[in-house]
Amino acid sequence: LAKTTQPISMDSYEGQEVNITCSHNNIATNDYITWYQQFPSQGPRFIIQGYKTKVTNEVASLFIPADRKSSTLSLPRVSLSDTAVYYCLVGDKGLTGGGNKLTFGTGTQLKVEL
Amino acid sequence: DSGVTQTPKHLITATGQRVTLRCSPRSGDLSVYWYQQSLDQGLQFLIQYYNGEERAKGNILERFSAQQFPDLHSELNLSSLELGDSALYFCASSVDGQPNSPLHFGNGTRLTVT
Prior knowledge:
The complex is a heterodimer. By secondary structure, chain A is mainly β. Chain A has no helices and nine strands. Chain A has strands at 9-13, 18-23, 33-38, 45-50, 53-56, 61-64, 70-75, 84-90, 108-113. In chain A, the strands form two sheets. In chain A, strands 1-9-8-3-4 form a five-stranded mixed β-sheet, with no helix packed on it. Chain A has a four-stranded antiparallel β-sheet with strand order 2-7-6-5, with no helix packed on it. In chain A, strand 5 (53-56) and strand 6 form a beta hairpin. Chain A is globular. By secondary structure, chain B is mainly β. Chain B has strands spanning 5-7, 10-13, 19-24, 31-38, 42-50, 53-57, 64-68, 74-78, 87-94, 104-105, 109-113. Classes of the chains: A mainly beta, B mainly beta.
């Protein structure tokens, strides 16, 4: 089972770039890495997904080294509204055929200040 | 808006009672997941369905049960409620239930057991 480890919390100031790293030493060959953002009392929201190297969209970039044992979510020029919990997920096949248990870790609480 | 609808938004009930939470997945999504989020335990995977069939099970209590209907909506039934069942219950859907397919979450049902 691919388990993830992230820092519990991070603080930043508006306008700075924030990098959140996730460790997933037991990632399987077919697993993708997916990041979600969650605001208080809301459901998590998909941010970005990647398999290797670098992926970029309008919200963030995802860097994945060649060994794929870690990944880094990069948020450029954060604002107060980026204060949220960020989760890193790796595909986790369930024991029953065809199913999967997408397990969220504790996530990283990002706090952005003025 | 994720396209996933959960009802009710809030539910207050007494210990020993039974409640039903409802989820309508995003249009076109065949798989539904249920998660429980309490203050001290983060997001806990409960169960996954794909096209009406159970596909994966997490740490779901025997007092809890779920099903996915032919129209793809899902219901989570919680019985013999205890104070510790108070939590946010999220439903998520994905297009094909594969571990690498992004999840789309509803805004949850907040259950308070008194």
